[in-house]
Amino acid sequence: MDLVVRWSPEAAEDLESILEYIARDSVFYARAVAWKILDISCAIPGQPFIGRVVPEIGDMMVYLDLRVREKNPATADELSEAVQEGALMRIRPVLMTVITAFAGLLPIFIFDGLGADVMRRIALPMVGGMITTVFLILVVIPVIYCLWEGRRFERPA
Prior knowledge:
The protein is mostly helical. Helix content is 75%, strand content 3%. It is built from 5 helices and 2 strands; from the N terminus they run E-H-H-E-H-H-H. A two-stranded antiparallel ribbon has the order 1-2. The protein starts with a strand and ends in an 8-residue tail after the last helix.
């Protein structure tokens, strides 16, 4: 089982402009940037699930960024409140995605039959990945966003 991650020629040429774009504090095209940087070969097992996590992270960043731009926070506390509101807007779609994935994998864990043991070994990492994705999208990404954006506010002495 080979893991092949390679740079596409176009991404290698445009890497500097992509990094400048990211540094300018715009996340509206996070999904396109992530796929442009990583040209993931089909040799990666579970690639469709990687393809589901990247858009979720991009959507989360867009929701957070839109909420922060709407609120235009003047203090770190207002920023934290805006980020929390943006994260709350994503709970329902993320949970619907995870519940749908669990519902699709449930028959693998319930029924015994020919090949069930092999399918369980394949499905169990998917379940773990979905749980990790929920934690990443609803907790880690908002915290990182809040820390990154919070740099522009003065710290009390």
